[in-house]
Structure formats: C-alpha cells, structure tokens
Request: fold
Amino acid sequence: PFSFDVTPALKSGANKMIVKVWDGTDQGYQPRGKQVNNPHGIWYTPVSGIWQTVWMEPVPEKYIENVKITPDIDKNIINVEAFINQPASSDRIEVKVMEGSRVVATGQSINNQPVEVSMPTNPRLWSPNDPFLYDLEVTVFNGSKQLDKVKSYTAMRKYSTKRDDKGIVRLQLNNKDLFQFGPL
Reply:
C-alpha cells in the first residue's frame, strides 16, 4: 500500500483527481505471475488496473498510517502494532476488540510498543464454515487528547503445517488438518 499527501495540489472549491495507471505487463521488473503479452499456449491474458480499494480521507497532522494485526490462537491474544506518522514517546495506543457492538477485549501500550490484547476464553475461530471477523478500533492519544482513530477487523485463525503419523506434511487451520478441494 502507498499514500500521497495531495494537500499542496488542492485549490479552493471543487477539485478533480485523475489517476493514471500503467502496467508494462512482462516488460518491467515487477512480479507478473502468468500474465504475459504473448501467452504461448496458456490462456492468461495481460491485465492492468487498480485491483484494491482506493480512497481519499482527511487526516490530522498526527495520524495512524497503518495497523498490523497478528492473531495468536495458541496464546489466545491479538498483537496490534500501530504505525504513527510522527511517533512520540508520550503517545498511548488503545485497542478495542468488538463482537458486533459489544467490546470483548481491550489493551493499551505506551512508547509506540505493540499492544497485546488478551482475548476472552474460547474466542470464535475463523473457518470457511464460520468466517467470523472481530471489529477493531485503534486509537492514539497524547495524554487524554484523542489524536486519531482507525477501524479495522481481524480473524482469530492460524494456518500451519504438521507431519501426520506417516510423516506426510499436512496443512492445518486452527491446529486441525484442513483438506483442500481442487488445489492447483
């Protein structure tokens, strides 16, 4: 992900933003997968364009640039790292984990340290049969003054591998073998 500060380009009144996308497909150094200009027997065609969410938002002078969320079902915690554009040792990061509108867990840290949030006993684990997501609010404070707040979501889930009793490596989801239908 990347961002741009467009403040210097803004004029008073209405503004128009134009985004230009260029993709050299197999002419550049970027990873390209199977897309090539001349496919030679495969049916993947060149594709270009914006393929993820794009948005504009006003932000305060000090704001949360990014959030890294790492669930750990074995320890029953979620680690949240908030990246602040102008970090200060006096910053306090607060995290709320919600199930719907109900707060189920909270945590906080100072000095720009990651926040370790202890989840309730038996949290709802994500799976293809139950793709449940927890909502998160991550807020940065200086003293009692709220500087910025972002909302996100996460799943309590774990992907791993484990050798079975015959020595075959098996893919696991939430510490249980996961059978995949039709993998390439």
